[in-house]
C-alpha cells in the first residue's frame, strides 16, 4: 500500500488488496504447502531466486498480509510474524548474535524477556549486560564490548512503565556500530513509531493491544531497512558473508534493505520454526482493524483512573506517564504526544497484603496473567509473572513488591472507577 495513507486507513486496509473476484476479507490460507507446476519452479524457490510460498513453517500468505500491515503501521520495509512475542525477541537478536557474542539491554523490560536474555540465551553462549536505561550515554556506552551486536529496550517497560529515551538509545547503539532493537508492544505504532526516532528493528508481542481481544498469542519482528550492515560487516558475518545453507548467497548483497528480515525468515524460521498459525494471524488482523479506535479509549480511561487513584487516601503511589508529576511525563509527551498505553501501576498503603486483598475484591477487573486487553485486567507481578526474579532483580526491573499492574480496558471509565472504589472500601 502506498505511503500517503494515514494510520487509521492502514489499520483497516493495509496488507490485503484483493484483485477481481478475490475475497474482500483476508482469507485464512490453512495450508501447510503450496503447489508448483515444474520441479524447476520449486528449485528456484529453495535457492531464494524466486519469491513464493512453499511451506508454511517459513511463510504463509495470510501471515504475510498481516506482517505487511504491521510493517506499514511501523513505517518499516518488511515484517515477520512469530508464534509469540518471546519468539520475536529471540529471533530479533539471534538473527545477528551467535555464540561468543554479546548485547546490551535495558534492565527495565518484561520479566519473560529478562529470563530469555539473562538465562536461556546465555546457555547458547550469547551474553547480555543489563543497564539502567536512565543512565547517561557514557555509562551505558561503557557496557559495550568489541563483540557487542545490539542494544535493546522497551518503549514502555512492562510492568515498571519506564519510558525509553529512544533517541538517546539510538545514538548509543549507532556510535558503537550496532542496531537499536525496540520492543514497542505497549504503545503500539498508533502511539509511537520508534523508527522515526532512530530505532532499527521493532519487535512486538502481538498478543497484547494488536490482537487486543486476548484470543491469540503472537509476535512480530519489523525491519526499518535502514541499518547499514555492510558498514559494520565484521560485526555481522551472518548477513554480510555467504550463507552456506543457501548455496553461498549473501543476504546484504542479494536483498539490500531486506537482508535482515529475509535472513530471519529464510534461515531462522526454516531451522527453528515458531511461525504464527494462519488462524491466529487472521484473528490478529481483525484486532489490527480497530487498533486505532481502541488505543485512544485505553489511554483516556487509563488517564481518568490514574487521576482518580492519585487523589485517593488509601493509595500510596501511582505510576502512569500521563500524570504531570511522573518521572517520565516529559519523555512520554515527546515520544507519545497522543497518549501512551492503558497500563498503569500503583501500590496501596499497607503494602503487599492489602494490594492482594484489593485485587480479590475487584468485580469488573479480572485477575489474569494477560495485559493490554479490551477487558480490564489486573495482576500482582511479584506473585505472578515475575515470581522467578529475586528481590534484587525485581528492583532492578523496577518492580516493587506491592506493585499492582492495572491494565485498563475499553469499558466505560465510570464503571471501572466504581469497581475500584468498592474494592478500596471493602
Ligand atoms: N514483550 C513485552 C513488552 C511483553 O509484555 C510480553 C508479554 O507480556 C512479551 C514481550 C512476550 O510476549 P508473548 O507473551 O506474546 O510471548
Describe the structure in your own words.
It is a single chain. With 426 residues, the protein is an alpha/beta fold. It contains 17 helices and 12 strands. Strands 1-7-6-5-4-2-3 form a 7-stranded mixed β-sheet, sandwiched between helices. Strands 8-9-12-11-10 form a 5-stranded mixed β-sheet, with helices on one face. β2 (102-106), α5 and β3 (127-131) form a beta-alpha-beta unit. It starts with 6 loop residues before the first helix and ends with a helix. The model has no long low-confidence stretch (mean pLDDT 95). The structure holds pyridoxal-5'-phosphate. Pyridoxal-5'-phosphate is lined by residues 84-86, 89, 110, 112-113, 154, 158, 183, 185, 205, 207, 217, 219, 371.
**Total of helices:** 17
- Oligomer classification: single chain
- The percent of residues in helical segments reads 25-40%
* N-to-C span: 53 Å
Shape: globular
Structural class: alpha/beta
List of distinct ligands in this structure: pyridoxal-5'-phosphate
Strand order, main sheet: write it out: 1-7-6-5-4-2-3
Q: Might you state the CATH topology name of the largest domain?
A: Aspartate Aminotransferase, domain 2
Q: What is the class of the largest domain in the CATH system?
A: Alpha Beta
Quick summary:
This protein is α/β, with parallel strands linked by helices. Helices cover 38% and strands 13% of the residues.
Defining key terms:
7-stranded mixed β-sheet, alpha/beta, 5-stranded mixed β-sheet, Aspartate Aminotransferase, domain 2, 426 residues, single chain, 12 strands, 17 helices, binds pyridoxal-5'-phosphate, 13% strand
Amino acid at each position: 500500500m502506498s505511503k500517503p495513507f494515514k494510520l487509521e486507513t492502514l489499520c483497516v486496509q493495509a496488507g490485503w488488496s484483493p484483485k477481481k473476484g478475490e475475497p474482500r476479507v483476508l482469507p485464512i490460507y490453512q495450508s501447510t504447502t503450496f503447489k508448483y507446476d515444474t520441479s524447476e519452479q520449486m528449485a528456484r524457490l529453495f535457492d531464494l531466486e524466486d519469491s513464493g510460498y512453499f511451506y508454511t513453517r517459513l511463510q504463509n500468505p495470510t501471515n504475510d498480509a498481516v506482517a505487511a500491515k504491521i510493517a506499514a503501521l511501523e513505517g518499516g520495509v518488511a515484517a515477520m510474524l512469530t508464534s509469540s512475542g518471546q519468539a520475536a525477541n529471540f529471533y530479533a537478536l539471534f538473527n545477528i548474535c551467535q555464540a561468543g557474542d554479546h548485547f546490551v539491554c535495558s534492565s527495565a523490560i518484561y520479566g519473560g524477556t529478562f529470563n530469555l536474555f539473562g538465562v536461556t540465551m546465555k546457555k547458547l553462549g550469547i551474553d547480555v549486560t543489563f543497564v539502567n536505561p536512565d543512565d547517561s550515554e557514557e555509562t551505558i556506552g561503557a557496557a559495550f564490548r568489541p563483540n557487542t551486536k545490539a542494544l535493546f529496550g522497551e518503549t514502555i517497560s512492562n510492568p515498571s512503565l519506564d519510558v525509553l529515551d529512544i533517541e538517546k538509545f539510538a545514538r548509543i547503539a549507532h556510535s558503537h556500530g550496532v542496531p537499536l532493537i525496540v520492543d514497542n508492544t505497549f504503545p503500539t505504532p498508533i502511539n509511537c513509531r520508534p523508527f522515526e526516532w532512530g530505532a532499527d528493528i521493532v519487535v512486538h508481542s502481538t498478543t497484547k493491544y494488536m490482537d487486543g481481544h486476548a484470543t491469540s498469542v503472537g509476535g512480530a519482528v519489523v525491519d526499518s531497512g535502514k541499518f547499514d550492515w555492510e558498514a559494520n560487516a565484521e560485526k555481522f558475518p551472518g548477513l554480510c558473508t555467504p550463507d552456506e545453507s543457501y548455496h553461498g548467497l549473501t543476504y546484504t548483497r542479494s536483498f539490500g534493505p531486506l537482508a535482515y528480515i529475509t535472513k530471519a525468515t529464510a534461515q531462522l524460521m526454516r531451522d527453528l520454526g515458531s511461525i504464527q498459525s494462519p488462524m491466529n494471524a487472521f484473528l490478529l488482523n481483525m484486532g489490527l482493524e480497530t487498533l486505532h479506535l481502541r488505543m485512544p479509549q485505553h489511554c483516556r480511561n487509563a488517564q481518568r483512573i490514574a487521576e482518580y487513584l492519585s487523589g485517593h487516601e488509601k493509595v500510596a503511589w501511582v505510576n502512569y506517564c500521563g500524570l504531570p508529576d511522573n518521572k517520565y511525563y516529559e519523555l512520554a509527551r515527546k515520544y507519545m504526544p497522543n497518549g501512551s498505553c492503558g497500563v498503569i501501576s500503583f501500590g496501596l498503603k499497607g503494602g503487599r497484603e492489602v494490594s492482594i486483598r484489593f485485587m480479590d475484591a475487584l468485580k469488573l477487573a479480572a485477575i489474569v496473567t494477560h495485559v493490554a486487553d479490551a477487558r480490564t485486567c489486573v495482576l500482582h507481578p511479584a506473585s505472578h509473572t515475575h515470581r522467578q526474579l529475586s528481590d534484587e532483580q525485581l528492583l532492578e526491573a523496577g518492580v516493587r513488591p506491592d506493585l499492582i499492574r492495572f491494565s485498563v480496558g475499553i469499558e466505560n471509565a465510570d464503571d471501572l472507577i466504581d469497581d475500584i472504589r468498592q474494592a478500596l472500601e471493602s
